[in-house]
């Protein structure tokens, strides 16, 4: 059965500039937290612009409580400055790769709103930038 996707939720992995967070590393972290299916995101955008696959899109993610059944989760590597404070640390390569990924997802899910995790859970700083404003031109 096809899932009805109404949201594309942007996240950050909450790592400092000198730390990495590949899809494989996030998968390990999530399994260590007891998530049997591992990585909760569908895509991870690395600092160099490489997009790594997480969960397949047909599977429900585990990235935004109350919204997983009808969303796609995208996580970019970063989100903390060198002191460990929330910051938009996306590289130009990440910004370009994320926009390309969102344009592609838009083809498959034309009705999906693009939001940041913070939009749905104001207690979170993630993704440390205003995704609704940044991607206004891709909104339904």
Instruction: Give the class from helix and strand content and strand pairing.
Output: alpha/beta
Spatial order of strands in the largest sheet: 3-2-4-1-5
Total helices: the number is 4
**Mean pLDDT figure:** 96
Query: What is the helix content?
Result: 25-40%
Q: Compute the separation of the termini in Å.
A: 24 Å
The secondary-structure element order is EHEEEHEHH
Low-confidence stretches: none
- Largest sheet, if any? 5 strands, mixed
Portion of residues in beta strands equals 15-25%
Topology, number of strands: 5
Shape: globular
Rg over alpha carbons: 14 Å
For this entry, give a set of tags.
single chain; 140 residues; five-stranded mixed beta sheet; 4 helices; globular
Provide the fold topology:
Elements: E1 7-12, H1 23-32, E2 43-45, E3 51-53, E4 71-76, H2 92-108, E5 113-116, H3 117-120, H4 131-134
Parallel strand pairs: 1-4, 1-5, 2-4
Antiparallel strand pairs: 2-3
How would you summarize what this structure contains?
It contains 4 helices and 5 strands; from the N terminus they run βαβββαβαα.
Describe this structure in words.
The chain is globular, with a radius of gyration of 14 Å. The chain is α/β, with parallel strands linked by helices. The chain has a five-stranded mixed sheet. It contains four helices and five strands; from the N terminus they run βαβββαβαα.
């Amino acid at each position: 059965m096809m899932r009805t996707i109404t949201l594309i939720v942007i996240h950050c992995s909450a790592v400092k500039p000198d730390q990495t967070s590949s899809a494989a590393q996030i998968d390990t972290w999530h399994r260590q937290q007891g998530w049997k299916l591992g990585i909760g995101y569908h895509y991870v955008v690395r600092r160099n612009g490489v997009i790594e696959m997480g969960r397949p899109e047909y599977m429900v993610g585990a990235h935004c409580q109350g919204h997983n059944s009808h969303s796609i989760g995208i996580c970019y590597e970063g989100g903390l400055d060198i002191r460990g404070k929330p910051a938009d640390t996306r590289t130009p390569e990440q910004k370009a790769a994320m926009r390309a990924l969102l344009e592609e997802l838009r083809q498959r899910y034309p009705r999906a709103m693009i939001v940041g995790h913070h939009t749905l859970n104001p207690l979170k700083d993630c993704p440390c930038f205003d995704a609704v404003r940044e991607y206004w031109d891709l909104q339904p």
